[in-house]
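Appendix B, example 12.
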Amino acid sequence: MLGALRFIGYKFQAQYKGINMKKNAVILLSGGLDSTTILAIAKDAGYDPYVLSFSYGQRHDIELEKAKEIAKDSGAKEHKIANIDLRLFGGSALTDKIDVPKHNNVDEIDSEIPITYVPARNTIFLSFALAYAETIEAFDIFIGVNALDYSGYPDCREEYIKSFEDMSNLALAACVDANINNRKKMHIHTPLIDMTKAEIIKKGLELGVDYSKTLSCYDPDTNGNPCKKCDSCLLRQKGFNENGMVDPCF
């Protein structure tokens, strides 16, 4: 809720009396539905987006191709792709030789931490985002975490984000250096955190997001077609169905 209120407030400030109050923001973009919606929200709130994606040893590279296209279409100021290799540690179906779980419907998805959880991934991603933000004088980071659909992911919870934000404000020179006249506070924005997938899709459609260009599947084929059976595919499909639509990628 806190993240949602922040971006609404900044949107109002940016539009107040027609004054151009654009600020830089780092947007974490995977090429999936949630992060693409986040990018649209940040732009609508008046931010200049500096987009950051990751090649982290995930099962497929097609999502990075999607991210490149989405970032370009959005008019992002920059799009950087950080190369790290979490296959070094494995421990996830996305970075190890572990089968991605498949189901026939969303009712089969349980609330336990799934094997698609990548250990410490959001902590690593946000740390890179902090470094990027500091170099471009940005004090806002947008990340598409969601606690409703993936309540089993520990690094998608509001208390985790708040703790990381508190740490950020102890770590960055611009936030702690007494010699800097205009010390700022770093904000981690999570406007999707309390939204259902259907609500996220509705918001994105209102902002003109073309979801046919996104990829959310954990196990797509070599042509980038979704498997339609993994947790991400099923939850995405449910969200479109609840909006009276068919997933454009299906």
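Residues 113 and 143 are 20 Å apart (CA to CA). Residues 121-135 form the longest helix (15 residues).
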